[in-house]
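Async update (no meeting this week)

Hi team, since we skipped the sync, here's where things stand on the single-chain job. The sequence we agreed to prioritize is pasted below, unchanged from the tracker. I ran it this morning and attached the output directly underneath so nobody has to dig for it. Comments welcome in thread, and please keep replies under the output.
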Amino acid sequence: PMILLVNLALFVATIIADMNRGRGDSLMSINGVTLFQFGAKWNEAIAAGQWWRLITAGFLHGGLMHFVMNSWALMDLGAQVEEMYGSARLLVFYFAATLLGFMASSWWSNTLSVGASAGIFGLIGAMIALGVRSN
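Output:
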């Protein structure tokens, strides 16, 4: 799905930005400053009006393993959700779950946060709803 391409593009961009800072280990672990600059969830910035971080954080990843595992889940689960619900609903589910997930994260945690997990859990919820509705 298109979400994977956006995630890949942003992952490569964060690696390049991190390497330009002189960090040789950028592939395995992206620096928090770089993630912040690209739109990670940070409560103080959100409170200052940068509400878009509640979405952009869902397209950023902290390192290679984080990116690979989320991409694997999105590839498998995203294809199933898209087949059952269509592309438009897949995007609605993903964006809504990402927004709500990072809102909850902001409520319970002050730490810098990134990742596709909230969106992935939204897709899992959509498939559970389909299974419940079919029975």
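Quick observations from my side:
The chain is about 70% helix and 0% strand.
Residues 64-85 form the longest helix (22 residues).
Reply here if anything looks off.
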